[in-house]
Write a structure and sequence with these properties.
single chain, two-stranded antiparallel sheet, 5 helices
Amino acid sequence: MKIMVSACLLGQNCKYNGGNNRNEILLELIKDHEVVSVCPEQLGGLSTPRPCAERCGSQVMNADGEDVTKEYMLGAERTVAIACREQIDLAILQPRSPSCGCGSIYDGTFSGRLIPGEGITANALKRNDFPVFSGNEPEKISMFLAVYDKINE
């Protein structure tokens, strides 16, 4: 199985503040699979570090008040292209992110409040029929991997 994973979850320092979101539980779950690492924000041309950003409706605005929607859209487009080229079976993305969030994202007020929604890249991958999970859903990921492995024995 080939799994696309947000680079920050793998421990790569590509998070907006220059850090990462290394997830040991996730790393254990995917250790026996081929991993394709992506950072949609960097693929869209944004630097690390960079001002944090949140979805505001259909736009993505950073904390400095700049519209970075174009960069997020480009990053999503490039991520989908990689997913297609690499023929991934699953994508596991960083929770709450305006790019990668699945199920919930920050509300656009930079107050830490979460709302139901998806990041630009998560949405683009789903529109292209890729299964997408949030990195904070180890039970769901584990179940998906077990079913996939059973089907492909």
